Amino acid sequence: MEYLNYTLFTIGGDTPVLLIDLLTSIFGLTCVFLAGRNSKYNFYIGYIYTFFLFLMFWNKHLYASLFLQPISLAINILGHYRWTHPKREEESAEDHKALKVSMLSWPQRFFTILSVLGIAAVWGWMLGLFTPDPVPYLDACVTVLILVAQFLSAIKKWDCWIAWLLVNITQLILHISVGHVFMPIVCSLYLINGIWSLFTWYKLYRKNA
Question: How many angstroms separate the CA atoms of 145 and 24, rounded?
């Protein structure tokens, strides 16, 4: 595990970029890029990405985030199956073996928003009570949004990219506020991909693909 702490280079003279940080960023960006291009191969990259995230959080003793990785892995497996085994009424017009892009209904969106706020409020309260987290409610909200975005991606809902954009913007603000240099760059790339994918998936939705 020690080789994962190898410093590849520094940014700004005093911000080290470790090997594990770079590997995690590369696989994460590749995964969301492929997802945005409607490629089922994003799931294969996603398995590797989850593994590196697990190692990174273990390496940095971020156990709350570490314990979420089995949930992320389960969602990734679900998504891999759903994207490649659609029901007859869910088949893409361009490929009957692929799941088509769909949208949440307004009642479903309303329920999703209430669920995120409710779970984040309880989770944030627990983080503030049992951990020294300086921004427990923000951290909790981002974590819940990530899980929701992953789940919506797994069932190929266009709305997932709205959730991802909220995650990217929040994380970008959070990293800048604590003085990080490398992660804001990565988050900016996620944000650009999210905007691009929002329009890409909408086109697929209109084509029933």
Answer: 20
Strand partners, 105: none
- Residue 93 domain flag: no
Q: What is the pLDDT of residues 157-168, one digit of tens each?
A: 999 999 999 999
Average pLDDT, the chain: 89
The number of domains in the chain is: 1
What is the tally of helices (H) and strands (E) in the chain?
8, 2
Q: Distance between CA atoms of 10 and 160, rounded to whole angstroms?
A: 34
Residues in the chain: 209
Q: Which two tokens stand for residue 20?
A: 């594990």
Q: Which domain holds residue 181?
A: 2-86+102-206
Residue 122 resides in a domain: yes
pTM assigned to the model: 0.90
Tokens of 169: 């913007």
Report the C-alpha gap between 58 and 4 in whole angstroms: 11
Structure-token pair, residue 58: 């273990």
- Classify residue 112: in a domain, yes or no: yes
Angstrom distance (rounded) from CA 54 to CA 77: 16
Identity at 123, one-letter amino acid code = W
Whether residue 172 is contained in a domain is answered as yes
Rounded distance between C-alpha atoms, residue 88 and residue 8, angstroms:
49
Residue type, 19: L
